[in-house]
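Subject: Glycoside hydrolase family 2 domain-containing protein structure
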Amino acid sequence: MSTWSWDVADGTPVAIEVYGDADEVELLQDGVSLGTAPLGREHRYRAVFETTFSRGELIAIARTGGVETGRHALRTAGEAGLTVRVDRPELRLGVGDLAHVEIELADADGLLVPDRDRGVVVRVEGAGELLGLGSARPDTTESYLADRTTTFDGRAIAVVRPLAEGAITVTVASGGEERTVALTVAG
């Protein structure tokens, strides 16, 4: 997962691994260079930088022959808020159609907050039913058939099945927040 959000104190020592096929990579932490390290085949396409964690931004800049060939940024997420979206708002009855409701903890900029998991409760009303709910947590004891789960790395997913023509309302609640998405079922 590409993130610079960790549940550790500022100042904690960290090793940052950068992978790429360029000649070299420069790593910037909050705009300050941590140095340049060789990459490529002879270095097993990997460079390691030692630093300390601090909330902010990391930018890796890859170069070949002194020319920038790519860059990738990681940012620390802000306060976690509940976001909910559905893969499609219209379902068809009788063809085994399902809707996948994506549940995420994200900051105001839409950046996933993977280090502050929390419980979510899903309620489905109208012309559909909750078929399953889970988070892909490998060590969970929570049932995928229940209406509640705990996010894993800031995510969970609910699967909704249509039962009749009409409207479906899916409400997700977590941490004092509530979000609703609407679905329509056609014959």
